[in-house]
Amino acid sequence: MEILVASAVGVLTAAGVYLILRLRAFPVILGISFLSYAVNVFLFSTGRIAVNMPPVLQPYGDASYTDPLPQALVLTAIVISFGMTAVLVMVALGAFLESADDKIDMTDDHDTTTQPAEQSE
Questions:
Q1: Residues whose CB is less than 8 angstroms from the CB of residue 121 and which lie 6 or more positions away in sequence, other chains included
Q2: pTM of the model
Q3: Does residue 60 come out as left (phi exceeding 0), alpha (psi in the -120 to 50 range) or beta?
Q4: What is the pLDDT of residues 74-93, one digit of tens each?
Q5: Any idea what the Cα angle at residue 95 is, between residues 85 and 32, rounded to 5°?
Q6: Which one in 3, 62, 65, 117 has a CA-CA gap of 20 to 30 Å to 13?
Q7: Is the pLDDT at 106 greater than 90, yes or no?
């Protein structure tokens, strides 16, 4: 079970990093989402992977339980990442509607140099 969770975290992280390095807005947003999913699975796995165990101690019986703190952290992280993904999608949509292109470009392709006005003497 641990190897499955570890490989899932690795695949999600690799896919997230690959998509973040793309030059379009939508794959970057998906990459950030994949990275947040990888962090959520990692946080969830820190609470010991125990199948069919209660999240709290039982008053009588063995002391096997699942730690509830990582579950609460993951639930909070899911809500926050969903909200941030919605904000990023709206910002990317606004940028796409403004420029008619979703390419993330660090260089300026447009000629922004202005010609000096001719002086009349």
A1: none
A2: 0.70
A3: beta
A4: 899 999 999 999 998 998 88
A5: 25
A6: 65
A7: no
Q: In this predicted model, what pLDDT tens digit does every residue of 18-77 receive, in sequence order?
A: 999 988 888 889 999 999 999 999 988 887 766 777 666 667 766 676 777 888 888 999
- As a whole number of angstroms, the distance between CA 15 and CA 30 comes to 9
Nearest to 41 by CA among 86, 17, 68, 73: 73
Q: Say whether 100 sits in a helix, a strand or coil.
A: coil
Task: Measure the CA–CA gap between 83 and 2, rounded to whole angstroms.
Answer: 30
Structure tokens at 79: 């809500």
Confidence (pLDDT) at 60: 72
* Calpha distance 28→16 (Å, rounded): 8
Long-range residue pairs from 69-76, CB within 8 A, at least 24 positions apart, any chain: 70/43, 70/44, 70/45, 70/46, 71/44, 71/47, 73/43, 74/40, 74/43, 74/44
At 118, phi and psi to the nearest 5?
-70, 135
